[in-house]
Amino acid sequence: QVTLRESGPALVKPTQTLTLTCTFSGFSLTTSGMCVSWIRQPPGKALEWLALIDWTDDKYYSTSLKTRLTISKDTSKNQVVFTMTNMDPVDTGTYYCGRAVAHGYYYMDVWGKGTTVTVSS
Amino acid sequence: DIQMTQSPSSLSASVGDRVTITCRASQNIINYLNWYQQKPGTAPNLLIYAASYLQRGVPSRFSGSGSGTDFTLTITSLQPEDFATYYCQQTYKTPTWTFGQGTKVEIK
User: Fold this and answer.
1) Contact at 8 Å (CB) between B23 and B51?
2) Shortest distance, CA B57 to any CA of chain A (angstroms)
């Protein structure tokens, strides 16, 4: 059974760096075609794709946010770490990690429950 | 970035109705199009991938079609548990993915 769980602070101050960890089980990020992606959702708004790391350790970022984002993996711990610098109140929302499968097509077939992040002083 | 536009933004329907949601891409994405369902307070759930392939465990009343720039999600007989928000997602420009703005399906 594939599961993912997000963890990190619920509250960050403006200008601080957000660090979130995605801990997963049921698959390996060394297996061909396996990826982990981060998605966020401001309250009452649509989903926004943020970043992805794949089994080769290639990393990809949202065009509009890439100067603020970093994604990395620790395969021995089955974890993916996501950071976003210079947080602003508009970054408030729910942050999800999910497994992305790359078998000809890409899709996110299993998601974590999400973690809510509020940016406020 | 490729823009994804869903229509309508919301709709009201009754149990048993046939519901159609459309998603238009700003450029040709062939069939690199996924559909997700999201219920309040929960994570999205994959329904359809590659435009028309039903994800394992998803009821057969859900179907997807389309190619190029125009895509459709159809629910043939709406059930009470189908009231939710639906999102399309393009994965053509991998991996600079984008989602549509969502379509909320409400009870009439």
Assistant:
1) no
2) 11
